Amino acid sequence: MYHDRTPLARGRLLLRVLLALVLAAALALGCAWGLGRVDVDLDGQGAAALRNAVLRSAVQCYAVEGYYPQDLDYLTDHYGLQINHDRYIVVYEAFASNLPPEVTVLQK
To answer: Model-level pTM?
Structure first.
């Protein structure tokens, strides 16, 4: 059975479709913004995790060998430390062999 829609019914249908499209666009924008925030938070956590890994490796070297290494290369060569140099800049400052180093991790 065929029913011809009235102009009012067509207008309501069009309004519902437009409302659904607007809500879908708002949801997509909200998700994109949220994912951007998550990415920023993960980058900050990655830098903190790398700093902790460098410090742990230096402390392990001190426990095993009795001194803190003078440079970061020693930790990467002998203690398995891996650093993503494309993403992070690591500043490793060792003042003396019996004092823990100052470690700063910066994002590129």
So the answer is: 0.63
